[in-house]
Amino acid sequence: MSRADGLFVLVLALGAVAFFIIHLISVWKAPLVTRNATVRGKRVTKHPKDAQVNGNVVRSSTIVGMARPRIDYYVNFELDDRRRVEFQVGRDTYEAARKRMTGTLTWQDSWFGLRFVSFEPEVEEE
Predict the structure, then answer these.
(1) Residue 55: left if φ>0, alpha if ψ -120 to 50, beta else—which one?
(2) pTM exceeds cut of 0.70
């Protein structure tokens, strides 16, 4: 590796670290937004982990001891102004959410997009 290549790699690495720090600060300082919302839908995305066995691609579910596929959970909300937003949420939030459930949705709005914070369902009085 030449000296110029080494310098390029160093500058690239420092740029990536700087970008990561700016990203963390912007998310940390982003204001919280809280609105009334209604759950309108849910979906999951599964990302299978494939493996090479003797030159063949094999799904991880067929190999003993391999990690399970990653599953991303999403909930679609309708805000009180009729605008819809979808957030990636944790498994617990996904499982607790029911269609037409109303409550208070909180998220952060940063330069890098929206980040889900919480959804607190309204308590139904008996």
Answers:
(1) left
(2) no
Helices (H) and strands (E) in the chain, counts: 2, 7
Amino acid at 66: M
Q: How many Å apart are CA 43 and CA 38, to the nearest integer?
A: 15
**For domain 31-121, which architecture applies?**
Beta Barrel (2.40)
> CA 107, 100, 82 angle in degrees (round to 5)?
60
- In 1-126, where do the E strands start and end? 32-47, 50-53, 56-59, 70-79, 84-89, 102-110, 113-121
Closest CA to 41 of 8, 4, 73, 69: 73
Q: Which residue has the tokens 């990690």?
A: 67
Q: Per-residue pLDDT for the chain (126 aa), expressed as one digit of tens each?
A: 677 788 888 888 888 887 777 666 666 677 899 999 999 999 999 877 655 555 555 555 555 555 567 899 999 999 999 999 999 999 999 999 999 999 999 999 877 788 899 999 998 766
Distance, in Å, from the CA atom of 41 to the CA atom of 77, rounded to the nearest integer, reads 7
